[in-house]
Amino acid sequence: MDFNKENSELPQPQILKLDDDFSLVKRFIDGDESTFRLLIQRHKEKVRNIIFLTLGDSDSVDDIAQEVFITVYKNLKNFRFESLFTTWLYRITVNKCKDYLRKKNVRKIFVPIKEASREFRNDSVTEQSDISKFVMNAISKLPQKLKVPLLLKDIEGFSYQEIAETMECEIGTVKSRIFRAREGLKKILQPIEAELME
Amino acid sequence: MSRQSKDFELLSAYLDNELSYEEKVQLEKTIKSSLLLQKKLEDLRKIKQLTSSAYNKIPESPYFETRLFASLDSQKPWYKKVLKWSPAVGFAFATIIIMVVLKSNPELLNNLVEQQESNIAGFYKENLQPLLFAADLNNEDIFNFAMYKQLPLDKDDRQILHIDYDKTGKEFFEIKSVEPNQNENNLEKFIVALNLDEKGKKQIDSIMNQYAEELEAQILINNNNTVAINSNLWNYQRAIQSDLLAFAEKSNWQEFQKLVPKTVSYSNSRNVVLAVHEIRNVRNNNYIFITSDSVFSEPIEFDLHEYKLQVAELEKELDAHNNKLQEIKFRFEYDTSLQKLENNLHNNFKIIFDSNFCRVEISEFDFPDIHFPDFDSLFGAYDSVASNFKFYSQYIPRIEHFDNKIQFHFDGDSLKTFEFEYYQFDLDSVMESQSELLDSLQINNWNNFYNFNDSLVFKGMPKLDSYFKFYNGEVEIKLEMEQLKNELKKFRVEMKQWKEEFKRGVQSQDKDKNSLK
Q: What is the Cα B72 distance to its own chain's centre?
């Protein structure tokens, strides 16, 4: 009997991400600040994408991501291990995005109309199809509280539970907001529905 | 919220796979029975598809981490930034403290260094004993010290201590190995050169003994590979040398004149005696130590008298137990630690080191200052004696001639008297013996000429026949010889006849004279 083959077919134990993040955070709290670089390497792309999805604008992604990690660095020693590190991290990310948008909205009042209309341009991100541009433009018109749960679900693949913890709301609220976002999106895209639904 | 809206919301959650099992089963049943729900589900699915495929991932930012850590560094509180430099800050702080302490107490460092040095010196000063006792020096060694400035440290391996002055007049000493029998019987040669009688020899011996005792305390050694040299040793060498040569001048002025350059005047020999007296009375406790890893100077009180008493007591005790005081053998072991001090002026000592050689140049040291009259010219002349006396130390033996021998007499030593016998040579006998030899070779057999019982020589020699080809071998020689023999026979016969005729003629002349009378 080939035991090796049998063993290799057995499900191998997975190293939990939870443990990895927790152990890195613990080492950081114990004084090993080099682990912070590992945490950044593990999560920076996710954070940057959430920011991009939330803002719909790539220009400020890195600046906000920097702020996110600086906030994490400053507060990591107070981390209480009551939730996942990622939940805590994404919550900070979303809050930073909210802060940014709030400030931006305030600023927009004092900015000339032409310049203000440049918002939500995504040309610099990638060459995308016209449909994608329409869809992105439509999503950008959604209210922030609907748009963010929708994108976290459909783009980042978060569960309702994760979205609820990130957004600091109930799961039912998340469910409702995602549905309303889809309904709103359908209405916005109605003029070109025929083309989209082909 | 209406029932329909609630179902639509459930459809959205159903698409996201966020319903419980029961909710899912229930909803699927409802969907099957409702075209409206089916259409709504399809719409929501398409919207979800559009949303999911609308965004691409944002490209990576290559300098994100670099920027972030730069920002973090700039935002760190000042004390954290200082912590980064804590080793340097700590060092600087410690330096400042040390500077302040040293400023307020300048003697501290010196005291510390002195304490350490005295600790080390204390180790090397243990159980020091005189070299003369250990190396069993004799008069020859002391004479060599006076003349060649060398004292044996280890007689077996011929390791010597050499003291001298460099070109600028600075003292130095060397510990090195020398070839055996380099300076042998020099004292004897010196005595011969001066043509001293028995009384003179005894006086020289007495001078040596006198200094031997005093030299004992000048070089000390111990088991820690330490040699301690009294700084008065250089003066002692001058003293013994001066004393010896002053005595030589006094005992045989004529012979002494041969040994020294003519330009030097020794009219002030009294001053030399005074200087020697001064050296011998100097109380000097400064010793220069050379050890395995250091060279330093330290004053030590060495009481030779006390030391001898202790040794005598020890010998008595050992005698009581039928033991003898073990002979001490000393050899300075060269240590590479000394090499680290090489070319560094360490405590005024410059060290030059090799595997079997160590030289210590003493740049600044308080040597006992003894005034020698006409120092430069006098000692220059004295040093030349060391090389000159050997030339005059060769015995010219008294030679006696006899009829058949010559005798060489070395006075006072019958063992060295020898004779050379010879015979009056008889040339005829030599010729006879040589012709006998030629005859024995039997001239008709030339091969005997090169029969040397040496096959190699024989092989290398050319055949004589090759040189005598024109003789046509032995036949012609035989013929020639036969002719020669015949000629000689004829010659002999003719000579016989001539002799007889001559005799007859003489006899007839005598008869005629008698008849006339």
A: 66
Q: What is the average pLDDT across A27-53?
A: 89
Segment B462-475 shows an average pLDDT of 59
B77 touches chain A (CB under 8 A): no
Strand (E) or helix (H) holding B416: none
Which amino acid, one-letter code, is at B178? Answer: V
* ipTM summary value: 0.78
Continuous segment of H or E residues that includes residue B299: strand B295-299
- Identify the three-state secondary structure at position A31: coil
B296 pairs with which residues across the strands?
B289
- What is the C-alpha to C-alpha distance for residues A40 and A47, in angstroms, rounded to an integer? 9
Helix (H, G, I), strand (E, B) or coil at B293: coil
The structure tokens 């906000």 sit at A64
**In 3D, which of A105, A117, A190 has the Cα closest to residue A143?**
A105
CB-CB contact of A160 with A153 (8 Å): yes
Tell me the backbone φ, ψ of residue B360, rounded to 5 degrees.
-120, 115
Domains delineated in chain A = 21-197 (1.10.1740.10)
Determine the residue among A68, A89, A154 to mutate to test chain B binding: the one whose Cβ has the most chain B Cβ atoms within 10 Å. Answer: A154
Cα B87 from chain centroid?
A: 48
Query: Nearest CA to B242 among B371, B131, B378?
Result: B378
CB B334 within 8 A of CB B355: yes
Q: Could you tell me the CA-to-CA distances from A61 to A40, A149, B173 in Å, in that order?
A: 15, 18, 81
Average pLDDT rounded to a whole number, residues B143-154: 83
Q: Residue A6, SS3?
A: helix
Instruction: Give the DSSP H/E element, type plus range, for residue A59.
Output: none
**Residue B379 backbone zone (phi > 0: left; psi -120 to 50: alpha; other: beta):** alpha
DSSP characters for B354-373? ETTEEEEEE-S--------T
Q: What is the pTM of this model?
A: 0.43
Q: Do A62 and B61 touch (CB under 8 A)?
A: yes
In chain B, what residues touch A135 (CB-CB under 8 Å)? Answer: 50-51, 54
pLDDT for B37-56, tens place per residue? 899 999 899 999 888 888 88
pLDDT single digits (tens) A44-84: 999 999 998 888 878 889 999 999 999 999 898 888 888 88
What is the Cα B401 distance to its own chain's centre?
50
> What's the length of chain B?
517
Which residues, 6 or more positions from B78, have their beta carbon under 8 angstroms from its beta carbon?
Answer: none
